[in-house]
Fold:
Amino acid sequence: MDGTFDHVMLRVANLEESLEWYQTHLEYEEKDRYEGDGFTIVYLGPEDMHEDGAMLELTHNEGEDDLEVGDAWGHIAVRVPEGELEDYYQQLMDEGVEDYRDPESCGGRYAFVKDPDGHEIEIVKRDPDEGALWSLDHTMIRVEDADEALGYWTRKFEYEHTGRWEADSFANYFLKPEDAAPEEMALELTYNYDGRSYDMGDAWGHLCVRVDDLEEDWDQLLTREAPDYRDPESNDNMYAFTKDQDGHEIELLERDPDADSLFPF
Structure:
């Protein structure tokens, strides 16, 4: 199993508005597009993103303009160079992005903005050699049991626990595939100690993990007792979906690097 995060999918109410926002403020370019029956999917990313960098997938379903941003998903994080967080945040403010959580309110370590649908976007400082400007650094999801969540990703997907941050009321855990490139997107698990439950909402979609052999890796996941949610056969052997212990959807996708389109269908 490759294990590299291929993309993270968000649902948007107004596709053109969202595209303009990401292309203007994060300088993303359209990597590919698929027009389906009643829906449109667009892949986005920095122009010079790494081959193992994760893309952002925006999905718009016709007639769905009232999306709920649940709290089971947290945010995506994008990279800016060390020492330039304040400058890039101010650039976003000058471009008309809403002031949500500025660097000063976050101790100068990071900042947050929101896109037109209310998806939270963290801005983090990274070495410029560890991914293109605005490239996806990690995706955060909230979990109700940290031990179960860590066990799921380390056993099912063979991820490594690469870091943690523990505070008085919560803990953050970071995971990546073994021997992951610095440019790859990581997964952040947030566990709040108060035992709260979470609402998935419908504005967040899924994480996508790239695999070497869809059928073989799917069978391996089932052997490791991953939920059989949408198997390859039910998706014309183009992709499959499982879920984690909290119900977050995880797509499995086998990519052909020589294909004209990023979409397998």
Observations:
- The CA atoms of residues 140 and 188 lie 4 Å apart.
- The longest strand covers residues 73-81.
- The radius of gyration is 18 Å.
- The mean pLDDT is 95.
